[in-house]
Amino acid sequence: MLSQIGTVALNELPDDYLETYRDKIRALTPTDLQATAQKYLDSANMQIVLVGDRARSTHKPRFFGDLEIYDAQGNRLP
Questions:
Q1: Measured between alpha carbons, how far is 42 from 65 in angstroms, rounded to an integer?
Q2: In this predicted model, what pLDDT tens digit does every residue of 39-78 receive, in sequence order?
Q3: SS (H, E, C) 6-72
Q4: Cα-flanking dihedrals φ and ψ of residue 37, to 5°?
Q5: Measured in Å, how far apart are the chain's first and last C-alpha atoms?
Q6: How far apart are alpha carbons 37 and 28 in whole angstroms?
Q7: Distance between CA 14 and CA 8 in Å, rounded?
Q8: CA angle 64, 69, 71 (to 5 degrees)
Q9: How many Å apart are CA 24 and CA 33, to the nearest integer?
């Protein structure tokens, strides 16, 4: 709770922010979310990062385009 109060103070949010947050989130519509995504996300330049077992995670991500695979040290793998 202290962390949440600190966030409100640090970001100069309204005093009722914590009390009204959930209701405001629940009031959002899919149209609201789509409009916000179009405003702030640059889908042409987005990158998707997956972390996990390579053998189990290379099939479906190919639908998003070519994959670049790196090892834990940041070296690109073939």
A1: 16
A2: 999 988 888 888 888 787 767 777 777 888 898 899 998 8
A3: HHHHHCCCCCCHHHHHHHHHHCCCHHHHHHHHHHHCCHHHCCCCCCCCHHHCCCHHHHHCCCCEECC
A4: -60, -45
A5: 47
A6: 13
A7: 7
A8: 150
A9: 13
Cβ-Cβ contacts under 8 Å for 7 (sequence gap 6 or more): 13
Stated length of the chain: 78
Closest CA to 69 of 77, 61, 57: 77
> Phi/psi at 32 (nearest 5 deg)?
-60, -45
Strand-pair partners of 69: 77
